Amino acid sequence: MSEPNIEGSAGSAAPARQEPNHIRRAVILWVVLSIIGIIVVILITPFVLPPASSASDLSNADNLTMVALTILSVPVGMFVFVFLGYSLYAFKVKERPTEAGIPLQPSPTLQISWLGITSLLCLFLLIWGLFAFYQQTAAASTNTLVVRVTAQQWLWTFDYPQYGLSVQGQEIDLPVNRPVQFVVTSEDVLHGFSIHALAVRVDANPGEITTTSVITPVQTGNFTVNCVELCGLYHSYMWEAVNVVSESTFESWITSQGGHL
Amino acid sequence: MTTQATEVRRRTDLFHTLCPSVVSGIVLGAAAAVVFGFIAHLLAGEDNPDAPVAAAYTAWVIFFFIGIGAFNGIFKWGFGRREPTHEEEMALAGKDQGLWRYFRFTTDHKVVGMQYLATVLVMFFIGSMGAFMIRLEQSRPGAIFFNPQTYNTIVGMHGIIMIVTTIVMVSGPFGNFILPIMIGARDMAFPRLNALSYWLLFTVIPMFISTLLFAGFPTGWTGYAPLSVQELTPGMDAYCFTIIVFGLSVTVAAINIVTTVITMRTKGMTWGRLPVMVWGVLLSVILGLTAFPSFIIAQTLVLMDRIFQTSFFIAAYGGNNWLYEHLFWFMGHPEVYVIAIPALAVAAEVATVFTRKPVYGYKLLIGGLIGIAVLSVLVWGHHLYLSGSENALDGPFMLDTELISIPTGVFFLALIGTLWRGRIWVTVPMLFVCAVLVNFVIGGVTGIYLADLPTDELLHGGMFVTAHFHFTLVGAGVFAFFSGFYYWFPKMVGKRLNTGLGQLHFWLFEIGFVGTFLSLFYAGLQGEPRWSANIAPPFATANLIASLFAILIAASVFVAVYNVIITLARGEKAETNEWGARTLEWTIPTPVPLENFGEELPVVTSLPYNYEPEPVAAAESPSAPASGSAGTPLQPQSGD
Amino acid sequence: MKQHSSGFIIGIVVSIILGFSIVAGIALGLRASGGLGYEPDVYRAVKTGPNSATLHIGTFPDSAFCHPNADAQKIEWVTYCPSTTFEVPANSTITVIIDNYDSATSLINDYFSKVHGTIGGTMTVNGKTMSQISPDAPGHTFTIQSVPNAPHPIFVSVPIMGVADNAPAVTQQIFGVTTSDYPKPNVISFQFRTGPPGTYIWHCYDPCGNDREPPYGFSGPMSTTGYMAGTMTVANY
């Protein structure tokens, strides 16, 4: 006996037929597991995104977006896992089936609700992302430190034009709590300039100049610059140490390297 | 019947067996490669090591096809100004040639499908060897197993071999063997082009492997200029030629599939009654036709920069590497959907069979697939958020990319709904479909992190990206391929794969895969860059765990190989309708006769998803005008 | 249909073992392939005391001296000899002597015309102490870099003065071999200190790969270990 066009929309009771209300059970399971999942995400965030990665105002903002996206993705993932798992548990047959499954089809209401909800989710993500993006493109203040970065195979060069200083080798210093912007280019091939802890990342193109957003380091510490675009033999050795230090330490570093304040 | 006459007959037979065939193709192609390479070397001089290599590859392809007899038809029938006779067409389709038809320029779509299947499996094996090398090197800090140059080549080879294989993995074997039968046709629209598309893929493989003889290539699978142009040794040319010839293969196959589906559907098979799998393959090849020319162009320009010293991509002479990036990613993004769409369609197709239910929301699902295909052409800029190019377009590209999540969500609704209240028969293909759902939701959700600018800033160029695309391309794509493989193997080969080994393959693969790539997600969140020959100490533990899980993946590959070998050797014969499915390929006998159907082609009256009631043994009579649905006319058909 | 006969299980085990041996075979094959990227044999610095050692190497305008079997393209490449894989003792002062037989190419980054990271910040060129040379004068540089997050970072960069373009070839003993293919070398010497054991990489930052504009100058030998790039291991010995 067939049951054509049964509505599968959440909330309506399926015909009982002495069967448990599958949809209600699955939805309850989904809600409970999503709540547990969100709590777990919030608890493990400090272990997955270690404190060293929130060293600038931008990386803090970006990490907040990461956590928000993860919290949103818990119910989405749980929807698939719960309904899949429940189906395998409740509707499995042991041998080759002798009967057909119930030929459900989505009602127009369900289709429109589904499209509507997923669109709202998408819109929310989009607005959040655009908002965060346009916040980053704030203009530089007068106090901004400008660091010119030149990439070559396989070393980073840093210039501090405001101090007349050119530093290569494997260590640079940045002052804490002062906005800094990186102006990047390459001598030979494509490189990817990245200071992960400060949320600084932009490609270095030969013959072109690209700039990062203006960021302000908010805590002192030792971080690294990596190359994130494959550039040949020693791509994975292309690193420098970035030390975020106090203003006074920074100034003495500048003079010790030969720059002028 | 003197022995002399028999011997003469045998000698003649050996010659005619081998020529034309793949053997004569290889011999002639290799000889021509050496000759033309040498000539180019003499003409170009010492300073141009790329010219002989380019000449050799071009000669290899052209003379391979001469050797395999691809051009024989042009002379016999084109210049001879006559149509081929029916016997000649049948001979070309491999009639009465036994197993040798698989080694010739055979036009029968079933032969081409089997050739693709064997090639896909071999290429997956080779590509996964590359993957195991990568995991070996990345298991400990430092470049201790391989020199970084060797490692970069391995990474690039793994990437391209897997990309090439996953592009053809569904459209090649199943799009060729199953699709024409599914729409009720006797062959494809352009049988000779069909053979051409396969053998073009075949010629690519030795070309690509030859890069190992020419010092490899340092750019990874993306082949970014100017690194690709800078590279002095000719290994890079192997990459460029591989892409160009492969692009030709895919274009030829795409034209064939599109024409076949549009013009050769049997009576009653309207667009609204087309199985989901056919929609998936069709959309994917149309997308491929849009995207791959860009890839071919990009590699041609790189070759010109390398061999003829032009400067499309060299900034010092007025070129720009952003040009390459745009050309590449205009292809690169639709290309991942070329991989994903047919895989998802196969998963949906298989799911209906093992839940004994129609697709939940057929029109919605097809609309979703079309939506994904259309949107995918508009989003390539999300690979370029941090390139410095087109900063003003970052916002619009983010909008587009987020929009793709809507049709993708529709796919999940369709599959979850198909499973819901079904009679779920957990066979090996069904296990793989469940894994597709689990892996694809993880892969799809992590894509959002990369689509959003604020988080892409933290994650671009890191292992998070690698883990994301492995979850989607492998977790959804390759798992769906295996689902189709276990599902259609009984029809294509006529034997039953061992279920226990299939389950072992599945569990080893899924557990190993999820373990490996979840560890790599973690490493990416810590900031590990991609393409790291040398793992820095902070990421060592995560990479070690990933490599340990990869051992399980390796074991699963070997188990699957064992399964295939023992099944081919002494497997059980499969039933004609092994799974009780409703699509047309299960109504014809196994092995499938040369012209698929009998005197009359089938007439279709509905979607092939009505499972009520369970049919008796499938119709053996080849001339039965069976409809695609075995349901009685009294049952209301839910055609949505 | 499940068969659990012992032959079946043996089959699974055998295929897994066979599979892993194929993996091992491919790994060994790739390592052995000289063309793909190879590290020549380790060349140890000679210890001259409990905390000191000397590393004596040379830079050559072609590969004939220490890559006699190189193919037609690579034999033209500039190279460091006798090896590019060095081992030096830990916690020591290392004296490096470089004999340069190659002529000059201009630097694209003037930073490398100065000496960095050596003891005293200087080097000696044919006996004369100096801390930088003209950016057009180096034939090569010898630059040691640390691996990411190295516990004891080392950064040493020394420009290697090039010989004159028209310097005549002389007969001389180089690393114990009599040869008349190369001119009289410039001898560059400097010292640096090592810390605890670790791995470092080094390569040349003077674009001597090809006489075209960037990026070509850094291809070829410049990006090939065994020629102008290699590793330096600090070990206890």
Features:
heterotrimer; B: 640 residues; mainly alpha; Cytochrome C Oxidase, Chain A; 2 domains; two-stranded antiparallel sheet; 1% strand; C: 237 residues; mainly beta; Immunoglobulin-like; six-stranded mixed beta sheet; 1 helix; 15 strands
What does this protein look like?
The complex is a heterotrimer of chains A (261), B (640) and C (237). Chain A has 261 residues and is of the alpha+beta class. Chain A has 4 helices and 11 strands, in the order ααβαββββββββββα. In chain A, the strands form 2 sheets. Chain A has a 5-stranded mixed sheet, with no helix packed on it. In chain A, strands 5-11-10-7-8 form a 5-stranded mixed sheet, covered by helices on one side. The N terminus of chain A is likely disordered. In chain B, 66% of the residues are buried. Helix content of chain B is 64%, strand content 1%. Chain B contains 21 helices and 3 strands. Chain B is an all-alpha fold and 640 residues long. Chain B is globular and about 65 Å long. Helix content of chain C is 11%, strand content 37%. Chain C folds into 2 domains: 32 residues; 197 residues, Immunoglobulin-like (Sandwich). With 237 residues, chain C is mainly beta. In chain C, strand 11 and strand 12 form a beta hairpin. The mean pLDDT of chain C is 86. Chains in contact: A-B, A-C, B-C. Strand 1 of chain A pairs parallel with strand 1 of chain B.
Describe what is shown at a glance.
Chain A has helices spanning 22-48, 57-90, 108-136, 247-257, and strands at residues 92-93, 145-152, 155-160, 165-167, 171-175, 180-186, 191-195, 200-204, 210-211, 221-227, 240-245. By secondary structure, chain A is of the alpha+beta class. Chain C is mainly beta.
Topology:
The complex is a heterotrimer of chains A (261), B (640) and C (237).
Chain A: H1 22-48, H2 57-90, E1 92-93, H3 108-136, E2 145-152, E3 155-160, E4 165-167, E5 171-175, E6 180-186, E7 191-195, E8 200-204, E9 210-211, E10 221-227, E11 240-245, H4 247-257
Helix pairs in contact in A: 1-2, 2-3
Chain B: H1 3-18, H2 22-44, H3 50-67, H4 72-79, H5 86-92, H6 109-137, H7 148-168, H8 173-182, H9 191-209, H10 227-230, H11 235-263, H12 276-307, H13 321-355, H14 362-376, H15 394-403, H16 405-419, E1 424-425, H17 428-451, H18 453-459, H19 463-492, E2 495-496, H20 499-526, H21 540-570, E3 572-573
Helix pairs in contact in B: 2-3, 3-9, 3-11, 6-7, 6-8, 6-9, 6-21, 7-13, 9-11, 11-12, 12-13, 12-14, 13-14, 13-16, 13-17, 13-19, 14-16, 16-17, 17-19, 17-20, 19-20, 20-21
Chain C: H1 6-32, E1 42-44, E2 46-49, E3 52-60, E4 79-81, E5 85-89, E6 93-100, E7 123-125, E8 128-130, E9 138-146, E10 156-161, E11 169-174, E12 177-183, E13 186-193, E14 198-203, E15 229-235
Parallel strand pairs in C: 1-5, 3-6, 5-15
Antiparallel strand pairs in C: 2-3, 3-4, 6-13, 7-8, 7-13, 9-10, 9-14, 11-12, 14-15
